[in-house]
TrEMBL record:
It holds the Pfam family MR_MLE_N. The lineage of its organism: Bacteria, Pseudomonadati, Pseudomonadota, Alphaproteobacteria, Hyphomicrobiales. The keyword Plastid does not apply. Keywords: Lyase. This is L-alanine-DL-glutamate epimerase-like enolase superfamily enzyme.
Length: 453
């Protein structure tokens, strides 16, 4: 009896992964950072047993999308991941609006893993691979295929075995006669609505007007590539291939908001350079147009980084309009949803690559799914030039991306020990005054939300 009491007393002193059944969520807080490589929001979910779950809100999204969920989570056992996910999933949406639900879902997996002492990939069913192949994204800002090829070659020398680059509208927007466009329409794409506080109503109006322009779906922009434009783009990828060779996979992104017909013409022009995929040629919602696009070319057609939930992927996969899907865990609904999406794609012979443009928290969440999903091909890495990226967290191999691969450690949860406040504090978003600040004002958020009656 005395011995049993002693054991209980000892257990009470252990405040991590001690009593998963009694684990409860006590708080949600955020750190809004920028430059890793874009703006994103690191999320902490705190518990009554001292363990903290890490998540991340998608690049470009708002912390509000996660914080507004706080009142739905307080007092709950974070190990009931799927039940909590189904409670909150109505508060997510496509694109950045999926960022809050997804961030929370990832932090719940981290907590469950830490509570039971198990890596996330193991809870998903175990390993399909020992290390996760990373594809290195490279913005093609230079107006020369040869120069971009040299930059890509440098990536290969760092050990990357899979590459991606931009090829499209913005490379030829300044070339006279390269783009057929309604007068004035191209200029607007150069302005991007930025982050941070605005001083005047007029600044707000201009910002929202820029939003409107960037939200015109491709079929309605009136933009088409001319033969001269297509010649330029074909020459560009030819120069790139000349430098990097034909052996290495090279994916193509940022074609621009051009017509599907221009997308088909570009795809046919570049077939002989064997792109790994052509990404987001048109909005993913146009399922029938995706089918037409894929039927018209041998280049694998890809989309998915803005799709929320497996239900969003289903029509595209059923239509045969994609050969590669590209979910972002921070939009798709998180870890388990992306595993389900990958498995659904596999049933139709479609490969999964994973979009990722945030900190090592997002990278590890994606790497666990990549480890545990059979049809996974490559994980995006956009931060090869960010020298403080690895310093955001502790407990992971440094560098995390080594010779073009991530090795997922056999540690509980995501495998991250902690985040480094000193590093984060040096890279806050404009207008942000601190990290992990109290969020009490979200404790009583309420509305009678139900998606049926
Ligand atoms: Mg993309």
């Amino acid at each position: 009896m005395l011995e049993a009491d002693g054991a209980d007393e000892a257990l009470n002193r252990v405040n991590t992964h001690s009593k998963p059944s009694d684990l409860r969520i006590t708080d949600l807080r955020v750190a809004e950072i920028t430059g890793a490589p874009f703006a994103s929001v690191l999320l902490k979910i705190y518990t009554n047993q001292g363990i903290v779950g890490l998540g991340e809100v998608r690049d470009g999204a708002s912390a509000t999308y996660a914080l507004m969920l706080k009142s739905r989570l307080l007092g709950e056992n974070p190990c009931n991941i799927d039940r909590l996910f189904r409670r909150i999933k109505q508060f997510g949406g496509h694109g950045r609006q999926g960022g809050g639900v997804s961030a929370v879902e990832i932090a719940l997996w981290d907590l469950a893993g830490k509570a039971y002492g198990v890596p996330v990939y193991q809870m998903l069913g175990g390993r399909f691979r020992e290390k996760v192949r990373v594809y290195c994204d490279t913005d093609a800002t230079v107006p020369s295929g040869t120069e971009t090829g040299k930059r890509l070659k440098q990536r290969m020398e760092l050990g990357f075995t899979f590459l991606k680059m931009d090829l499209g509208l913005m490379q030829i927007a300044d070339v006279p006669g390269a783009v057929v466009s309604p007068a004035g329409s191209l200029e607007g794409y150069r302005d991007h609505p930025g982050r941070g506080p605005l001083k005047t109503i007029e600044e707000r109006r201009v910002c929202n007007a820029a939003y409107d322009l960037h939200n015109v779906p491709h079929p309605f922009t009136g933009l088409h590539f001319s033969d001269k434009g297509l010649d330029f783009l074909e020459q560009y990828i030819a120069e790139v291939r000349e430098v990097i060779g034909m052996d290495v996979p090279l994916a193509i992104d940022h074609i621009g908001h051009i017509s599907m017909q221009s997308g088909i013409r570009l795809a046919r022009r570049i077939e002989k350079y064997v792109p790994a995929w052509l990404e987001d040629v048109i909005p993913w919602q146009y399922t029938d147009q995706y089918r037409q696009l894929q039927d018209a070319t041998t280049v694998p057609i890809c989309t998915g980084e803005d799709i929320y939930l497996k239900e969003g992927f289903e029509p595209l996969l059923k239509s045969g309009g994609v050969s590669v899907i590209h979910p972002d865990l921070l939009t798709s609904g998180g870890i388990l949803e992306t595993k389900k999406i990958g498995d659904m794609a596999q049933d139709r012979g479609v490969a999964m690559v994973i979009h990722m443009a945030e900190s090592p928290i997002a990278a590890m969440a994606a790497a666990h799914v990549a480890t545990a999903t059979e049809n996974f091909m490559a994980l995006e890495y956009h931060s090869v030039d960010v020298d403080w990226w690895d310093d955001i967290v502790t407990g992971l191999p440094k560098p995390l991306v080594k010779n073009g691969f991530v090795t997922v450690p056999d540690k509980p949860g995501l495998g991250i020990d902690d985040v480094v406040d000193e590093v984060i504090s040096q890279h806050l978003q404009p207008g942000v005054t601190g990290i992990w600040l109290p969020t009490d004002h979200w404790d009583d958020e309420y509305s009678w939300d139900r998606t049926w009656s």
